Amino acid sequence: MANRLESSTSPYLLQHATNPVDWWPWCDEAFTEAVRRDVPVLLSIGYAACHWCHVMAHESFENADIAAVMNANFVNIKVDREERPDVDAVYMEATQAMTGHGGWPMTCFLTPAGEPFHCGTYYPPSPRHGMPGFPELLIAVRQAWAHRGEQVRDAARRIAKQLGERAVPLSESAVDDRVLTGALERLVGEFDQQHAGFGGTPKFPPSMLLEFLLRHHERTGSESALSMVQRTCEAMARGGMYDQLAGGFARYCVDAAWVVPHFEKMLYDNALLLRVYTHLTRLTGSTTARRVAEQTATFLLDGLGTSQGGFAASLDADTAGVEGATYVWTPPQLIEVLGPADGQWAAELLGVSPAGTFEQGTSVLRLPAEPDDSGRWERVRAALLAARAARPQPARDDKVVTEWNGMAITTLAEAGGVLGRPEWVAAAVVAAELMLGTHLVDGRLRRSSRDGVVGEAAGVLADHAWLVEGLLALYQVTGESRWRGAALPVLELAQKHFADPDHAGAWFDTADDAEALFRRPSNPTDNATPAGASALVAALLTASALTGSEPYRAVAQAAVARAGTVLAKAPQAAGHWLTIAEALAHGPVQIAVIGAAGDAARAALEATARWAAPGGAVVLAGEPGADEPMLTGRGLVDGVSTAYVCHGFSCDRPVTSPEDLQAQLRGPIAGGRE
Q1: Taking the model in full, what pTM does it have?
Q2: Whether pLDDT at 345 is above 80
Q3: Domain 11-166 adopts which CATH fold?
Q4: Which of 281, 354, 377, 429 is deepest in the core (most CB within 10 A)?
């Protein structure tokens, strides 16, 4: 067999390069081969950090007998969902429509035209728990194709047609304060009053909803909004989903009480949660929130940083085929590392018991309360971390995804500005330079790279959106116009190639000149990450506030209206949209600081602006006469550094002291608006 995966830039595909399965990457040639052989396509989609993807690979794809059945009867295509989110999206929609649920690994059977006719997720190697065995499924599909091939094709065409008909943009709906208040009320009703967070099991980090609730509290003073954020952030930080030794969050918890995580660590979760904990620190001064923000930023830099300056996609859930093996402990293991006294103290502090909270008597470390002896805790933590570093470590998917790196750039720039950590900003600068130097190819954006080699997959809408957000975040925190100059062409690319020409405010997730799938994906709902459309609209709103562009703002408002039904009826599927709507309701707030470079008074105003600004605000500092749209026409007052605060189309009086600026941003308006 030809090893068609060996030159891939996807670590996930490389994991399968030596399987006895005759894998093809996603390509036209694979479908041409299916036509030539007159066989169906078996499409397997997963990602490198996925536990059950590894299980199915070991049980079935590494099994020579099962592979022989696959090779004889199908053209087998392996796809990394993180590298090809467009392929994943259309077949996930088909899987959910056929089965009522979805997940990874995803297993789809397609006609040679790419139309799905049977879809599922994980299949065991033999019948188990009501699931058919994978070999039996392969034989059943082979027989259906051989004896009822035309019926199968007709069914696939009908499925594709029905999915296409469902993909109609939502009707426009006004998004006003009533909708935002209604979203808050729904979330109060859906909040887990016992354990915090939303939903039962599994329990996911609701980063976008938390950001919305923070912004809503800042605008309205809602105590219930702030309380849900504080309780959820505290529960996540104290529980097993948070790495108490090295920082950083796992993907989700398998229980409602935040005890046992699914151990994979994703770049996007940690970037989005860094933003939430930074903004909670800024708003409340919480020492726990600040600690978590600092440790999460450290995890991004040390745990996911690549030698090229980007950020790797994820750390695996498994270590040497065992889920969580790197992270869990028993009381004897703690005593072995720390000695009897510290070992017993650590076991009580971290919830490590003989019965265990995980598998085989092991426990996930938690920190239910602050240690009574912080110095002792730091000594214990350092010793446990060093001992853990000597264990086998989870694999790292070191491909660099544009979208998720854009998130990391955004949040490191924001957090670095708010918390006074210039090294985080510097790391964001290096990552942004990698995106612009490697991922932009001949004026178009690519999805990912690995080891500095860019992949072939075209950038999707979310890649463009988050790169723009990251570049504009750097523009704000550094004041360097080169970042604005780099961001706006990418924003224009997105508007040119992804906007729905027939429905104002609607967006496709793939470009108009991208590879044609059986349906062009367009999903307006937020999920584990913001929808491409909501991310793009956030970038448009940021750009409009920084440049004064009314067209950008108008497009953003039209898109929010197009998503209004989701905001009103399903806020858990619209967290990022709600943050954008809050920014619009707040103005968004624009803060311009004018003063000489190096002037202490300017630095004090800028630090106050970044600390006190509400979420969604834009902050820019520069010298008098600076050629920047947001600074034009604004000068010193009485010869001293000055801050200007505007809310959309109205402005407060200029102020020259941090105290007055703080009052404008956090307290009653100081003076009238002009």
Answers
A1: 0.95
A2: yes
A3: Glutaredoxin (3.40.30)
A4: 281
